[in-house]
């Protein structure tokens, strides 16, 4: 049974009528039978009856723009409508059946008589209403905070987009400008013969045109040693300082051999000029890569927040997961992330921003579980008329006493200040709002969360 944030099992038990109390109330009202989706009331009118759930589930939600935010789910023995009946005001919430349900309806006049003739039930009503108001307001405030965070992220992505694009263009122009300036200066460099200048220009052009590859550290170290020895054998000072630049740029011994052909005397100056130029162009390339990373993050953020898109769309689950992995890249450093996506996976109807919050919470928890090492596996596949996403880790698993509480709001095993305990509660609400479900299995081999999302839109008004 879903509880509102901050509501404990004890709170919920105190807000539920006993079976004897429910039986006693049957003499004051009539039983309604509801199908899934049937409304008891909404915010359009005045609530003139008090309702006690006898069987099934009834969800209480609040309209937030075009979306409904689920605040509470009532099961047998729980009740709703009391505050509106007592105040005679229009309801700000809506209530409808989440499954086939039986509800006892007591009109407003009779409800006042119940308060006198059934004191135990009346006490439960009043105390329950007081707690309900607190936890409902807390739940809606939490939703508003999450919505504000999403808008802030979208705005930040928009503001960063233009500067990042400008920096990327400037970096490309800077790299080209450095090459042009160096080559023009080389034309007038008296240290080299015309043939020496031609060979330097040709080698620079050849090296610059080579595809960049990142060799493994051991191979790179071996190449640096070989180049340093080659330069030292030919009397080049600072050979150990020049070798790393050449190795990083992909320069080989045979490339440098060509520079010594016109004159051995020109070689020291030639390798210094080449190393200096390659170091400058290498810095611009590093700048371009960093700016490209920023642009990629900005793009991922825009996709992540579903900026400038309708709230309900056909959502590409895999793209959402990939954008989330990009956003969480800093936290997943040192973690081996394995992907297993079924080819041609269909899109699911829903709110892309909410689903990305689900992936964020699951991947964030998985990263915490492996503590900067180990592996995380993300799997997405079709199962009948649903898409299933599994996020698993090879961490130590959860103790038995923790497993049953992971979806409770405000429950966390993290250190104080590291988490509010709302992540999995938010995830479960979002999944339920898409008509899906989320489950968890944990053992010594690790933890696996599975999210099942229907391919047909049948939302249950999650927040």
Automatic annotation (TrEMBL):
Domain Histidine kinase positions: 333-457
GO biological process per UniProt: phosphorelay signal transduction system
Keywords for this protein: Kinase, Transferase, Two-component regulatory system
InterPro entries, sorted: cNMP-bd_dom, cNMP-bd_dom_sf, HATPase_C_sf, HATPase_dom, His_kinase_dom, RmlC-like_jellyroll, Sig_transdc_His_kin-like_C
Enzyme Commission identifier(s): 2.7.13.3
Cited PROSITE patterns: CNMP_BINDING_3, HIS_KIN
Domain of life per record: Bacteria
Domain Cyclic nucleotide-binding residues, every copy: 13-132
SMART domains, sorted: cNMP, HATPase_c
Catalytic activity line of the entry: ATP + protein L-histidine = ADP + protein N-phospho-L-histidine
CDD domains for the chain: CAP_ED
GO MF, any single term: protein histidine kinase activity
Disulfide bond keyword on record: no
Protein name (database record): histidine kinase
